[in-house]
Amino acid sequence: MAEMEYRRLGRSGLRVSVLSFGSWVTFGNANQLETAQQAAECLSAAKDAGVNFFDNAESYSAGESERVMGAAFRELGWNRHEYIVSTKLFWGLHDVPNMRNTLNRKYLSQAIDGSLERLGLDFVDLVFCHRADPNTPIEETVWAMSDMVSQGKALYWGTSEWSADEIRAAYDIADRHNLHKPLMEQPQYNILWRDKVEKEYRRLYEDIGLGTTIWSPLASGLLTGKYLHGVPEGSRATLPGYEWLRNRLTDEESNKKVADLKVIADELDVTLAQLSLAWCVKNPRVSTVITGASSAAQVRENMTALDAVPLLTSEVMDRIDLISFF
What are the backbone angles phi and psi of residue 70, rounded to the nearest 5°? Predict the structure, then answer.
């Protein structure tokens, strides 16, 4: 397998593996990776391949994802300097005012403490505002996130699925008050979902040095090709709470594109998943591609996407563009 590449996260000095591992859907889910031992097997397989960044969020499995990942870290006995871990805050776990769907100071200051307790860590390397909050002044959020970094509870902060205007507003406030600035954004990005990373954020890479930790590189499994003939039993679209995915994964137009992409993958003698992950890696504006898996074997298979990167010549990339944009 090709050697792992490490890229700087935006303008920071932090280097993240270009392929990383995330716990969304899988960790703490009774239908996926429920125990620390199962999670540890996946984490270990990822680290063996050179992965140093592990992504999580408060809301994943209502906090259980963080508990399982933290327990897996302890079971593996890794030194804290060996890995980078993140969490994301916004949705909340407590159905009371100020604790749901907010980025106000009260919520953020308590939410990070809860995440650290569940992870069993003194700090996270990265903390994200999981969505924008139109009901809290951005200035309040920026001060609270900057304080979180100053207190040593997180080393860097950023955003997830914010608009370019919201990111720039947050950056400008931090710059004006000499606060810790938002460093990175976690947007959805894949062959079928490109505009935010390639168009909306275009100015931010040079202007503020934005880094990106992209999620859903396989479009929730659509870009593996397994939905070309319907929804297979046991797939993500059959999981309780993920019914919203079914229509997207069975969309006729999207699956026509996937079928056309499979022709290219077959010509290159790679899988659709390898092609799709390698395509994300090819974008130099992508700091890291967050992969997901429900078994160590699947982790190892995802990591082989590094071998496909050199196969994506300019000609192949042009052919993918024609499919993606039609």
Answer: -60, -45
Q: What does DSSP assign to residue 107? A: H
Cβ–Cβ contacts within 10 Å for residue 211, how many? 27
Between the CA of residue 196 and those of 9, 48, 81, 173, 323, what are the distances in Å? 18, 32, 33, 22, 18
Mean pLDDT of the chain: 94
- Provide the total of helices (H) and of strands (E) in the chain, helices listed first: 13, 10
* CATH number, position 132: 3.20.20.100
Position 13 in a domain = yes
User: Residue 134's CB: how many other CB atoms inside 10 A?
Assistant: 9
Q: Confirm whether pTM is higher than 0.90.
A: yes
Total number of domains in the chain? 1
Q: Is residue 76 part of a domain?
A: yes
Q: Is residue 266 part of a domain?
A: no
Residue 214, beta-bridge partner list: 289
pLDDT, tens only, 124-164:
999 999 999 999 999 999 999 999 999 999 999 999 999 99
Q: Which are the catalytic amino acids?
A: 60
Asked if residue 37 is part of any domain, the answer here is yes
